[in-house]
Amino acid sequence: MKNQFLVFVLIYFIAALTAHQAYPQTNSPKGATPINANEKPLEIKNTYAVVVGISDYQDPRIPDLRFADKDAEAFANYLRSSAGGKLDGDHMKVLINQQATMAQFANTLDWLWEVCKEGDEAIIYFSGHGDVEKKSLTQPGFLLCWDAPARVYMAGGTFALPMLQEVISTLSIQNKAKVIVITDACRSGTLAGSSVGGAQATAANLSKQFGNEIKIMSCQPNEYSIEGEQWGGGRGAFSYHLLDALYGMADNNKDQFVTLQEVGRYLEDHVSNEVAPVSQVPMTVGNRNERLTNVDEHVLSSIKSGKVNQTMMLSAIESRGIEEDVLAKVDTNTKRIYALFKSTLKEKVFLEPANACAEAYYQQLIQEPKLERLHSTMKRNYATALQDDAQQVLNTLLKTGLTKEVLRKSRSRSIYRNYPIYLQRAAAMLGEQHYMFKTLMARKFFFDGKIQATPELRQSFYHQALSWQPDLPHVLCDMITVFNRSQEDSAVYYAAKASALIPTWVLPYILLSEFYEFRMGNPEKVEKVLDDAIKVDSNSVYLWYVIAGFYANYGRYAESEKWFLKTIDATANDVCFPCAHNELGVLYTDMNRLKDAEEQFKKALQLDSNFGHAYSGMGLVYMRTQRPEEAEKYYMKALELDPEDGPTHYNLGDLYLITGRFDLSEKHLKQALLNNRQNPFIYEVLGRLYTETKKYSESEQMFRNAIELDANYGKAYSGLGIVFLSTNKLDEAEKAFKKGIVADPKDIDLRYNLACVFNLENKTDQAFEALEKAFQMGFNDYDWIQEDEDLSNLRKQTQRWNAMMKKYFPEKVK
Fold first, then answer.
1. 215 has which bridge partners?
2. 545 and 591 part of one domain
3. Distance between CA atoms of residues 579 and 582, nearest Å
4. Do 156 and 281 have their domain in common?
5. Which residues lie below 8 Å from residue 236, measured CB to CB, with a gap of 6+?
6. Which residues, other chains included, contact 362 with Cβ-Cβ below 8 Å and sequence gap of 6+?
7. What is the pLDDT of residue 228?
8. Cα 562 to Cα 62: distance, rounded to the nearest angstrom
9. Radius of gyration over alpha carbons of the chain, in Å?
């Protein structure tokens, strides 16, 4: 069969001249007579395949495709797998891009003729361009090989459909092989036959059946095949879901076989939905009961597990080729508006300003009849752009959790405030029948919840989100954050639901640990949850960061430093993570390693010069080093960048309290309280402010609020006791100081203040005992001790007093 190529050419001319008579006329359904569903299928002896994928054409006038070659390579990998038959080089020929010349394609089909015998299976897969030069019965279409010319297809470099059909019919009828033909050739592009619908005419002719062959095609004859990065990182929608189907995702009845009918249904459900509102409905031709493949459970399980963390996406698609053809027929102004529309989508200028945004341009273009072929693509791409940023946040939450909220300690309401509006507009554009409508509405309410100031409001919106999509993992996870300390069961319940959906996800553990830390003040449970999280994902950088923060909050400084340094080292080259440097700076400040703290804050600012928290941290360092004027400048810079930052208002309020500017102190502390009513430290400083200004009733209430939020907050008990001391309620003061010591045995001030109360109550022995305990713990303000009126009676016990002073302050006593 050395002259087979010439035979092909001869066959083509004969077929072309008789094409109008070649197609059998019948009223019966397409395909062979259906077999009984219970009939045992023929055993396949050998499988042989020819796989062709062309994205990069030799002739620059033929528009290149993006992912046709990747689709072919993916299909070849399927055939190499255990699920696809483990085909080796003796059973499969793969032609990619420049390998896929017309001659090479012909040679591989010639090889298929030679090797396929009765009982064998022959698979032909082609992904590339299909076209006609002119619409006529004698020119049924061509598959464009790599070396195809941009015009005059009959000159070579193309494979005429009658030639392909001759190969198929010979394999099926003469060789009695099972034949499967898969084509993805209806692509957009400015080709020779664009003006007469060449790609569609080719698809229509490809769909015709001559024998018992099986054909699977990417779309209907009047549609285009859509490709994009949203499918497998860069694939065609048809190819991506075809392989899922063949691997076993289409096996609805779980009988371990995938039939042509199951493949057809799976492709229609998934491809048609995911390219909507653009129309692409894949076609299948042949015996619908035909078993195409056996299901390999191990491979299928692997595929399913890989899809667990995928969030349903709505992504942009391209209309190259169609776009050029349509725009060539409209006026200059319409072209200008269309260009502006695309530009505003790219720049994310969606709804404002009113007359120069994507919405305004879209409303004009959608009324233009000459753009009708682009309307569906425009609608989809606009809806995609509206939800794209939200999609990226959702993806990040599932993957690393390192959103802007974490990386920059930003507030949800400042970074997500427009998302609900955009998502609702996207849902409205696509309509209630679109497969993404419910998902978009669920996401809209999720982000509505994220931007609310109180847990109660967040919970209300999250419930609405779950009414649209009960299994949206992001909502189930974030529900953990809405409960108070008395609702532990609810927090645990939602953490378990989120983890059950995505067992490898550490974010539910992180949020539950924060619930135990900041709502319940239970470090044992925090540590237990974090230990469980490490078992789930020991490589989570976010988890390391949270562990570091936990140890810092509970004074385990060495462990905290280790985890912060581990976090910084892991993100040094991959993620801009100023927060890690900032928090390490805070840790060093708490450890009184102020030079190290300053260095970390400066590193945070090197990563992000607009990172307000680092300016606030620098202010705290300067406060600790007795430089209040410089501290104030840094605090003001932090507020300039983020006027609502609660911690900075708190620090500035504390500075103004220390420097005696009480009105300014109250203003900033109240602003801090507006941002976080659950922070006991703010109430404690406000309590000190009101004590200083002799507003004792307000002061008492602030300290009680702090204690209610944190029953182990020693400074709040100390402040409350001082209020009672100042109002001569000595019994109440003694009780407050004693409760404080039980809550926080390490608080030195509580011991000293208790000594003062005992002295005022004339309990001299107890006063000396409490004072000595304070000295043993490190109280060392000698000058204050000598002047404090509340210790005057003790100082009168000259011998005992001097002995104690000589013992603890030998350098001061001569």
1. 181, 285
2. no
3. 5
4. yes
5. 67, 68, 71, 127, 184, 218, 225, 226, 227
6. 341, 378, 382
7. 83
8. 58
9. 37
Same domain? 699 vs 651: no
For residue 136, what is the DSSP state? B
Q: Which helix (H) or strand (E) holds 300?
A: helix 297-307
In a domain, 315, yes or no: no
DSSP-assigned letter for residue 370:
G
Please count the other Cβ atoms lying within 10 Å of the Cβ belonging to residue 796.
Answer: 10
DSSP category for residue 504: T
Of 248, 240, 258, nearest in space to 315 by CA? 240
Residue 123 is given by DSSP the state E
- DSSP SS3 for 311: coil
pLDDT band (50, 70, 90) for residue 323: confident
The residues pairing with 121 across neighbouring beta strands, listed in sequence order, are 47, 178
Does residue 721 contact residue 757 with C-beta atoms inside 8 Å?
yes
Let me know whether 658 and 709 are in one domain. Answer: no
Confidence of residue 4 (pLDDT cuts 50, 70, 90): very low
Residues in the chain: 814
pLDDT of 812: 86
Question: Identity (one letter) of the amino acid at 96?
Answer: I
Is the CA virtual torsion 610, 611, 617, 618 positive or negative? negative
Quick: pLDDT tens for 539-573.
Answer: 999 999 999 999 999 999 999 999 999 999 988 76
Structure-token match 């945004």, residue found: 357
| Residues 113 and 252 occupy one common structural domain | yes
Within a domain: residue 570?
Answer: no
Q: Are residues 488 and 512 in the same domain?
A: yes
User: What domain range includes position 752?
Assistant: 677-808
| Number of structural domains in the chain | 5
Final residue before a domain boundary, out of 490, 519, 554: 554
Contact 282, 238 (CB under 8 A): yes
Same domain, 139 and 267: yes
Q: CA-CA distance, 789 to 766, in Å (whole number)?
A: 17
The H-assigned helical ranges of 81-169 are 102-115, 161-169
562: in domain: no
Phi, psi for 178 (deg, rounded to 5): -80, 125
Specify whether 657 is located in the same domain as 681.
no
- Cα(139)–Cα(108) distance, integer angstroms: 24
Place of tokens 């009988």: 255
CA distance 481 to 461: 13
> How many CB atoms within 10 Å of residue 80?
18
Tokens, residue 15: 């077929």
